[in-house]
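User: Hi! I'm a student and our assignment asks us to look at how structure tokens line up with a sequence. Could you show me two examples?

Assistant: Happy to help. In each example below, the sequence comes first and the structure tokens follow. Example one:
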Amino acid sequence: MTIYWKVFAWAGLAALAGVLLWLLSPMLLPFVFAMVLAYFLDPIVRKLVSRGMPRVWAALLVAFVSFGTLIAIVGTLVPLAVSQASELIETLPGSLEEAQSQVEEVLPDELSEPVQDAEIEPEGVVDWLRDSFASQAGMLAQGVSGVISFVLFWVVMPVVTIYLLIDFPKLIRSVDNLLPRPSAPTLRKLAKDIDTTLSGYIRGQSLVCVILMGYYSVALTLVGLPFALIVGIVTGAVSFIPYIGMFIGTSLGMGAAIWQFWDEPIWIAAVGAIYAVGLFVESEIMVPRLVGSAVNLHPVWMIFAVMAFGTLFGFVGAIIAVPMAAVTGVVVRFLVDRYYRSSLYTGTDENRLLDR
């Protein structure tokens, strides 16, 4: 009976954690980012501490350098992104007219007549887009909740990150002190396995995303794809979402290529080759070397995790889906191994589920 109670207790704790995560999901975004950043940067802080620097100064130095670099990157990329977005609005009317003429040339006469008869007013489309964007932007600017959320994110997230970096060892010791003593060695080993999985995924996948953002931005710019910077950044940034990110990035790049190079298939093929090379290098070289087998989950389960967490917790859920699925996989494999070694499976009382 002891085994059953332990299983139910741990299942209850997991269910309670899931309910709390669901209830608090609207306010969790800055804390999730802060925890990920602190976890990502903690090894650097530990290395500085091992060389004699006080923990507080090491945490402050790493945080300020990291956020300074982030601000510099954003300050460099945002003006370029805004410039490309303005260019998109300016060129949209001519592009729509060109697309209409191309369709009329390609389609047979019977099918092109409805297109010719259709009244397409590019300026009206642009005006509608501008009015819609202005309306939505005005609502967001006037909405107190939107402004508060934006301010809170950029105020709370850096502060929480610094505090977590400073107090990381204390937090680990506090959690360790809460562990039941008979099960503490087993739970520490489980936590170590989870740490290995998370560190391998987060640090490796972050590096993969940065490399892909640079590769796609530069390569697409060289072939003359419009808005290459935005397309490249988005393609690299969403690559952390298994399969779905690949589909989004490829669709975005190829759609822009078809729009720009409608009558020049060689350049459409060039963009396709860029994505083919990027996908091959990502899946066959970078992910195996930088991420390895950290996640160790079947592709179907990863897709299910992304959709399930995204549905339950929105954007935050999509971000944490794969890491949480990886952690769940570690716990499930641990429990299955303990089940095979427990009296519930063997019919003996020699092994217990958590205490060995």
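Example two works the same way, sequence first and then tokens:
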Amino acid sequence: MTGKTGSKTGVIEQGTSQTHGNTHILHFLVRFPRTMEAVWAAFSTPEGLAAWFTPADVLEPRLGGAVTLRDLGSGRVTAWDVDRVAEYTVEGAGRIRFHLERDGEGASALRFTHEFEGEGESEAGWRARFERLLAYLRV
């Protein structure tokens, strides 16, 4: 999907992948023509996560809270800063971090990181999820 910040479409910038031994780290930058407040619920609520990623059967929205992502497993909320950072560390699936920041007037950017060991998600898998996210947010 293409577009520019401030346009009516979101942008999924090229993902990057790093490997350090058996640890893999995926990074994406996704831009939205929506405020942080308008995008936050997609990463921080069971309804938002279910709409584009996976159902959150348990989500205690606080640092140290329990989280169960149906397709991935159970773990903890390992970072939580309302309207900015939601990070979930799930046994067997690694650390999944959503970091929102302002990106100009009325726009926001997601700095996404998925750190995991062994076999796991691909850039293509996350790109497909972010396409669903943009459709969910109608950008």
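Here is something you could point out in your write-up. Residues 95 and 119 are 14 Å apart (CA to CA).
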